[in-house]
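Model: You mentioned two targets. I'll fold them one after the other.
Researcher: Yes, keep them separate.
Model: Target one:
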Amino acid sequence: MGRQSINNRRSVKIVFWGTPQFSIPTLDILTDRGHRIMAVITQPDKKRGRGTELIPSPIKKRALEIGLEVYTPGNIRVDINEQEQISRLEADINIVVAYGQILPECILSNPRYGSWNGHASLLPRWRGAAPIQRCILNGDRNTGVAIMCMEKGLDTGPVIISRAISISLNQNYFQLSTLLSDLTAKLMIQAIDKIEDYYKLHNSNIVDSTFVKSQDTLEGKPSYANMINKLDCRINWDRSSIEIHRRVMALYPNSFCLLNSKRLKILQTEPLIIDRNDELSAIARSIVSIYGNDKRPPGQVIDIIKDIGIIISTISEPLIIYEAQIEGKKPANGRSLLQQLKVSAGTILK
């Protein structure tokens, strides 16, 4: 479909709320489909590292690239001036995708079509700040995206549309987040069309159960995805190989342990679990029968496989490390990894 026919579609006036890279595909598709972005609201610029330079959020960078107005309130719940300024934009709808602050009721209820959030989970499961990380940590076999009508509660609003996707054993946070980000954008476009049709037909700003589904009627019990902190990122080798692997995948690229008192980021692993052979890579399947039953003290290097990686013991089955980053060096895998780490059988990771 050409750009001319896309731009002839109905145009909705939108205030867009978002902050990380995850938000960008939704902003892009809204502008591509000809909707009017009245403003983009994002988190304030932040200092990075030890310098004093302020770095804008990914969504701010993108918004400025395409010529959109950007607001960066420090705390939208208490900043009355910002609330009034945003209300004066007279948007039809608020679209929120990973903004990072709780919106006050005066903002939620201001647009005539209400406020709608693209949330990266199958609600009511994993409400809260870190749904993608928590679903991987928990070993969920599937997740998805839900577009919900926002209300005062934390991700408790009724859902207009949702879609599930499966999670593979070796899928890390970045890979899964990219899939869910793209899915959020596609579902949001569908949702906006449905929302506009509904409100025009009913001439009301109240949604009913024929239009959206209360989370009480959806499958699953409510669970909360608490924010990830630095302690979550430390690997404990006294855990099972599948638990450690999930931590590496979920918190990519930040999981770490210590090697000779230096921080070692673990970037890619695979648990050598015979019972999950069908889910393993070809490399892991070729060695799982050799190492799968090896028992050593947790965190000990069992063996080194040339050009592939390092076999590490855990409280259960061993784990293979394919890629890692020792403090002061670049990420490495294969032969480069073995040359950097200079480990041998019996070396202990802590």
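Model: Target two:
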Amino acid sequence: MTVSGPDADRDLDSVPPRTYPQDADLTGHWLETTIKAVGSGVQIAVTTGTPGYRQCRDTAAANGADHTERLGAGDVLCVITSQGRIARLITKDATQTSSDPIIKFDVTVWDPPMPH
């Protein structure tokens, strides 16, 4: 998934994640390689390693914010989406161009476990 500037609203609840401003979870910044939450209840936490569902969920719940600091290749985001899914975004590239920041991610989105 690529996020390029503030007009790159991304809905992580759609399959595959897509640009959809009405239900967006995240968007980019117009001058920095940062990500901010735009959806209701969306939480973002930057972490390390390759967390699985539970670790990502717990990290986003405990340390989540509505934006990140500047991102670079290798940074990992854990996100609670507006519909309660958990997403892991691994930053593959983060480049500031003269017009927009461009951030490329590998994305995994998990549905919450079904109640028993």
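Researcher: Noted. Anything on target two?
Model: The mean pLDDT is 91.
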